[in-house]
Specification:
Aminoglycoside 3'-phosphotransferase, Chain: A, domain 2; 2 domains; six-stranded antiparallel β-sheet; five-stranded antiparallel β-sheet; 13 helices
């Protein structure tokens, strides 16, 4: 960031009838400290207030971040003036007279006001919640902010905004209409026509699944024990079958153009391979820039693996006209953190917004369901190695869970033509999607969580058969 005079100017914001002068420098520092801010590795050129929406006792401020590389992003930052002890990490700026400018989502009163903004409320389902004073923030582990009201309503507040049809809202509505049992019921949304941008979805509400265990915790606990007993592996197969059911529901609508399934053609697969090649080319220089973050020879081994994979892709025979299955709307960011295990042993699939780094148009594209399969298989590998060390036991656990999940998914396909019918074609396409996911993981971790980058880098070594 090059803080010129324009950047150093304060941003005047009207709050509670008064003008508060927000320091761009302070806001930038606060943004970079947030888990959900996606521009940590990019130099910020300008930071401007794009729009405000009054929500007593504060406002919803929408900022446009322009980066030195030319890219721009919109971020939602609810703000209010606060006196007293703030929640940890909520202070954006210290104001005169011992007042504080804080992230308003940290306060009960502001969170209560948001309930009255929910649109498309199904009659009666929010009765007894809208006027509730009981709410809590969930830990900041995602790219959004999550709020639970009275243990009945889950509100996902989007921090990074994009105009147009939000995939999470669209998919949640779709699943509610179909009666799919393995998602939380959609309960409404909050939208805003942002000045100079278009309509953006600020939040999506759904039924809160009380007492459920998140899939990540469920899998990590088993990976830590490395027991891989029959009960757990059977549940993993059930998760695979549940995933198939989701894909079959998504492929069942032939009237809605946004969801109607289409054949996965040779040109689609060719475009997929070309995209993976581009990801590979973009990753190579990024890995060189970050090689000093690793104390061992991981970066050198990964560079060798990239060369091996590059040769494999270069020599990969392009697909001919044959049956590669269907392309449908998919989850798009499918991993263990997007799954809940109910008390009765059934699964709930959540978070249908897709990968946050991709545009809405990309996330809404129809693709092979094998992309979701590859994402969950990689997630089991993450769970196995998340404890910071790799052993023969963790490798075996990861391989077993990936195999059982895949068996469950394929076993529930029955006569469905969602995937390639011929085994070589199936394995070929799955392998391409696994590589695509690995490259995405490496780039994401290097830019956001460098300490975690060794997990997908080791996965890349295994993919390239350089380490078993």
């Amino acid at each position: 960031m090059k803080p010129g005079s324009a950047f150093m100017d304060d941003i005047p914001i009207q709050l509670s009838g008064e003008i508060v002068r927000l320091s761009r420098q302070k806001l930038t520092e606060w943004l970079r400290a947030q888990r959900w801010f996606g521009g940590k590795a990019r130099a910020i050129q300008t930071l401007e207030l794009q729009d405000t929406m009054e929500v007593s006792p504060g406002i919803i401020a929408i900022f446009r971040v322009t980066y030195a590389d030319g890219g721009t992003e919109l971020y939602s930052v609810p703000l209010k003036v606060h006196r007293g002890m703030p929640a940890q990490g909520a202070v954006v700026q210290i104001l005169p007279d011992q007042a504080l400018l804080i992230d308003a989502l940290s306060e009960d009163a502001f969170r209560k006001s948001l309930l009255h903004l929910l649109a498309d409320k199904p009659t009666g389902e929010l009765r007894g919640i809208v006027d509730s004073d009981e709410s809590r923030l969930l830990p900041a582990t995602q790219s959004n902010t999550a709020i639970v009201y009275r243990e009945r309503l889950f509100l996902k507040w989007f921090r990074k905004l994009s105009p147009g049809m939000n995939p999470d809202m669209e998919m949640s509505r779709y699943f509610r209409a179909t009666g799919f049992a393995h998602t939380a019921r959609y309960l409404g949304s909050i939208e805003r026509s942002v000045a100079g941008t278009g309509v953006c979805t600020l939040a999506v509400g759904a039924e809160w699944v009380s007492g459920a265990t998140d899939g990540w915790t469920w899998a990590v606990d088993d990976a830590r024990a490395q027991k891989a007993d029959g009960h757990f592996t059977n549940k993993v197969e059930l998760l695979g079958a549940c995933t198939t059911e989701m894909h079959r529901v998504l492929a069942d609508n032939t009237k809605d153009e946004a969801f109607a399934p289409e054949p996965l053609k040779s040109e689609d697969v060719t475009a997929l391979v070309d995209g993976v090649r581009m990801e590979l080319d973009a990753l190579s220089p990024l890995l060189i820039d970050y090689r000093n973050r690793f104390s061992d020879d991981t970066a050198e081994k990964a560079t060798a693996a990239l060369l091996t994979v590059s040769k494999w892709l270069k020599n990969l025979p392009l697909p001919q006209d044959r049956n590669y299955g269907m392309k449908i709307r998919i989850h798009g960011d499918y991993h263990l953190g997007q799954v809940l295990l109910r008390k009765d042993g059934s699964f709930v699939i959540s978070d249908f917004e897709g990968e946050p780094s991709r545009s809405f148009a990309e996330r809404r594209m129809k693709q092979s369901p094998l992309r979701d399969v590859a994402g969950m298989m990689r997630s089991f590998d993450y769970a196995a190695h998340s404890m910071g060390h790799t052993t023969d036991g963790t490798k075996a656990w990861s391989a077993t869970m990936q195999e059982r999940f895949l068996n469950g998914w394929r076993g529930a396909l029955s006569e469905s033509r969602l995937a390639p019918l011929q085994e070589p074609d199936f394995q070929w396409l799955l392998r391409v999607f696994l590589l695509q996911k690995l490259l995405y993981e490496i780039r994401y971790e290097l830019q956001n969580r460098p300490d975690w980058a060794t997990i997908p880098l080791r996965g890349l070594l295994q993919f390239a058969f350089l380490e078993v």
